[in-house]
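User: Please fill in residues for this 437-position structure.
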């Protein structure tokens, strides 16, 4: 018997022996007098055994069978290893038609030695930032490298953006590395599906922030604005307020998203048998939709803050690389080592040495942006760098057989020639002296 049952037995025996009244026993046990009367009847009919609970030693009717426990443990070890208890319970219901609570799954895995009971840490008290009231007021964007396919493929980066008001992932794509193209494709996905947000929160990566962002005093006095990166120029064209966070905690919603996706997305990709990044990108929209259905919340306000995308705006012309070039004779220009000219003649011919803005899309298409219009370019000739002639070594010169260097050195002959030369010079000197007299 338990300690509580032993206490009930002692009180009932005292009442039966006349040492306590029913009301006194009820107060001592913290129950009503009617319950005391029921206990007395059980004691009279069954003795001390009637006070004990009748289900002690019996298996509960709703207890899990050993077969279910063994199958659950085997499925976790073979297919679903690495998933947390909550996600594992969802996967069992979705794929195996086994309905178990997350607490039951946790107890089974701990009993089988597949997981260890972790002691919960005491959370630090902090005041979280309140969500924005309307969907589309603020997006948070980031990328993280991770082994999304475990050992089936090399690591690559997931680019994603999340709405601050709803926690809904508005766009996501896998790329080999964190890059401007990945962020641009994520923004295009979200804008085409939901609309243009009012603001964007990102880190201070050079993709978002130009390394020459600080202006000199002369530039500030001249009224120049801050230089923008290619991505920043696209945000300015769409009138999106771009905020660059100083710390990761400032954009904590997208940082916490990585913890969820790294815990769940890896298991989902493994179950689908995906082994390449291309196949992962094909399955990603369906997995993100599943994530949004489970974790997205309703905004505090039913009104939407999204700005509609105008029909005359082509996002391929917005998310580009932008550089300035000078037109040459015949409306030609040089870009990336290639000479381009207009694919179709312009309505108004531009003069030579006119500075124009050249843009290159994510697909590699090159065009000129002039007066809010895109004018496509075509290749004419590839510029070949002039190769400088390398100085060749001089050919080896071989002296002739009668060359003085090959003759034998004779001292006596040299002295004879020297004396003859001196005699000739002396006689010539005397001749000029006599003539002068």
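Assistant: Residues filled in for all 437 positions:
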């Amino acid at each position: 018997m338990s300690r509580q049952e032993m206490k009930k037995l002692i009180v009932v025996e005292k009442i039966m022996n006349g040492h306590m009244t029913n009301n006194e026993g009820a107060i001592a046990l913290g129950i009503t007098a009617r319950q005391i009367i029921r206990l007395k009847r059980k004691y009279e009919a069954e003795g001390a055994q009637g006070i004990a609970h009748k289900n002690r030693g019996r298996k509960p009717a709703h207890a899990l069978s050993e077969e279910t426990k063994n199958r659950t443990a085997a499925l976790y070890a073979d297919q679903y290893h690495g998933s947390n208890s909550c996600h594992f319970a969802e996967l069992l219901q979705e794929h195996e038609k086994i309905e178990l609570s997350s607490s039951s799954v946790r107890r089974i895995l701990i009993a089988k030695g597949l997981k260890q009971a972790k002691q919960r840490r005491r959370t630090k008290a902090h005041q979280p930032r309140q969500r924005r009231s309307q969907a589309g007021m603020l997006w948070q964007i980031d990328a993280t490298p991770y082994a999304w396919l475990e050992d089936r493929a090399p690591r690559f980066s997931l680019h994603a953006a999340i709405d601050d008001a709803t926690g809904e992932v508005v766009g996501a794509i896998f790329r080999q590395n964190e890059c401007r193209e990945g962020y641009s494709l994520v923004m295009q996905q979200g804008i085409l599906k939901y609309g243009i947000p009012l603001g964007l929160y990102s880190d201070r990566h050079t993709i978002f922030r130009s390394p020459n962002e600080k202006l000199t005093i002369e530039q500030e006095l001249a009224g120049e604005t801050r230089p923008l990166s290619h991505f920043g120029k696209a945000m300015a064209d769409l009138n999106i307020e771009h905020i660059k966070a100083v710390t990761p905690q400032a954009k904590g919603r997208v940082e916490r998203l990585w913890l969820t996706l790294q815990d769940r997305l890896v298991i989902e990709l493994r179950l689908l048998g995906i082994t390449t990044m291309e196949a992962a990108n094909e399955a990603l929209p369906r997995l993100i939709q599943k994530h949004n259905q489970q974790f997205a919340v309703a905004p505090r306000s039913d009104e939407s803050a999204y700005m509609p995308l105008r029909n005359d705006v082509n996002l391929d012309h917005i998310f580009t690389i932008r550089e300035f070039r000078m037109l040459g004779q015949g409306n030609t220009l040089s870009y990336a080592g290639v000479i381009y000219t207009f694919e179709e003649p312009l309505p108004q011919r531009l003069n030579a040495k006119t500075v124009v803005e050249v843009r290159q899309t994510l697909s590699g298409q090159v065009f000129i942006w002039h007066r809010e219009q895109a004018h496509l370019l075509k290749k004419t000739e590839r510029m070949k760098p002039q190769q400088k002639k390398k100085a060749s070594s001089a050919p080896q010169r071989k002296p002739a057989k009668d060359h003085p260097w090959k003759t034998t050195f004779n001292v006596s002959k040299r002295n004879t020639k020297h004396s003859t030369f001196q005699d000739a010079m002396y006689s010539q000197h005397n001749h000029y002296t006599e003539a002068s007299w």
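For context: The chain has four domains: 3-50, 66-111, 139-215+223-295, 320-382.
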